[in-house]
Amino acid sequence: MTINHLPCPLLLSMPGPMELLLIFMIVLLFFGARKLPEMAKGLGQAIKEFKKGISGTDKKSGEKEE
């Protein structure tokens, strides 16, 4: 008796280059070229803060928080 492990039809594969280009163009049209760098900077800062919060370290003291 074997069990078939078929992928769930709702799971999608990674988008290819054409899909990424299409997504970028839609975002560019929706937000405009001037807003994208600000959004990218904010996203980068949010990721940096998230990683800092996950690691639990304080850069000033170098000790782990409990």
Topology:
Elements: H1 17-31, H2 35-55
Structural summary, described in words:
This protein is mainly alpha-helical and 66 residues long. It has a domain at 17-54. Helices cover 55% and strands 0% of the residues. The chain has 2 helices and no strands. The chain has helices spanning 17-31, 35-55. The chain is flat. The mean pLDDT is 79.
Index terms:
single chain; 66 residues; mainly alpha
Question: What does this entry show, briefly?
Answer:
This protein is mainly α. It contains two helices and no strands.
The major β-sheet equals: none
Radius of gyration: 20 Å
Strand segment count = 0
Low-pLDDT segments, ≥5 res: none
- The overall average pLDDT, rounded, is 79
Q: How helical, in percent, are the residues?
A: 40-55%
- How many individual helices? 2
Structural class: mainly alpha
Q: Please provide the ordered H/E string of secondary-structure elements.
A: HH
Bin the strand percentage: under 5%
Apparent shape: flat
**What distance lies between the first and last C-alpha atoms, to the nearest angstrom?**
50 Å
